């Protein structure tokens, strides 16, 4: 399970450090792509999780799956960490997510999200203890 929030710099070449705890869960090779949850962030999937996502997309009606595939696959890249634990975020994805010098990386159970730090702060300010509690009520937990 991927969890935790991490703040890291992005170097001039577009590389960002992925914490070892997260790298261990992702495996040697993984996929980075545009986020598909209506937010301008990036998603990182292990190969197993990517394959599950691709399989799920395939169950959609073809007109809908084509739209998702075009959006997702056009900006999807295989990546591996270098010896220092960094990944290179392709320029098209850095531009899409507004990533320049800092990134906030969040473990989201089955995948990571990589956010522009400022956008993450704005997004995170929307969540209050009360709003989260109201969602949790649906779980009866």
Verbal overview:
This protein has helices spanning 20-26, 47-57, 62-74, 91-97, 117-124, 129-136; strands at 2-9, 15-17, 29-34, 42-46, 77-80, 86-88, 102-109, 111-116. With 141 residues, it is an alpha+beta fold. A hairpin with a 7-residue loop joins strand 3 and strand 4. The longest helix has 13 residues, at 62-74. The protein is globular, with a radius of gyration of 16 Å.
Mean pLDDT: 95
Query: Which structural class is indicated by helix and strand composition?
Result: alpha+beta
**Which stretches of 5+ consecutive residues score pLDDT under 50?**
none
Figure out the total of helices. Answer: 6
Helix content: 25-40%
Number of strands: 8
Radius of gyration: 16 Å
Order of helices and strands: EEHEEHHEEHEEHH
Distance between the termini: 20 Å
Provide a brief overview of the structure.
With 141 residues, the protein is of the alpha+beta class. Helices cover 38% and strands 30% of the residues.
Record keyword descriptors for this entry.
single chain; 141 residues; alpha+beta; 6-stranded antiparallel sheet; two-stranded antiparallel sheet; 6 helices
């Amino acid at each position: 399970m991927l969890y935790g929030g991490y703040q890291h710099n992005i170097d001039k070449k577009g590389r960002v450090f992925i914490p070892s705890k997260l790298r261990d869960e992702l495996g040697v090779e993984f996929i980075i792509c545009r986020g598909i949850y209506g937010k301008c962030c990036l998603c990182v999937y292990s190969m197993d999780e990517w394959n599950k996502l691709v399989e799920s997309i395939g169950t959609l009606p073809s007109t809908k799956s084509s739209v998702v595939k075009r959006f997702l696959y056009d900006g999807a890249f295989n990546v591996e960490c270098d010896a220092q634990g960094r990944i290179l975020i392709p320029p098209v994805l850095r531009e899409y997510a507004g990533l320049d010098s800092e990134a906030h990386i969040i473990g989201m159970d089955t995948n990571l999200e990589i956010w522009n730090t400022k956008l993450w702060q704005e997004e995170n300010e929307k969540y209050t203890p009360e709003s989260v509690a109201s969602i949790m009520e649906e779980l009866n937990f």
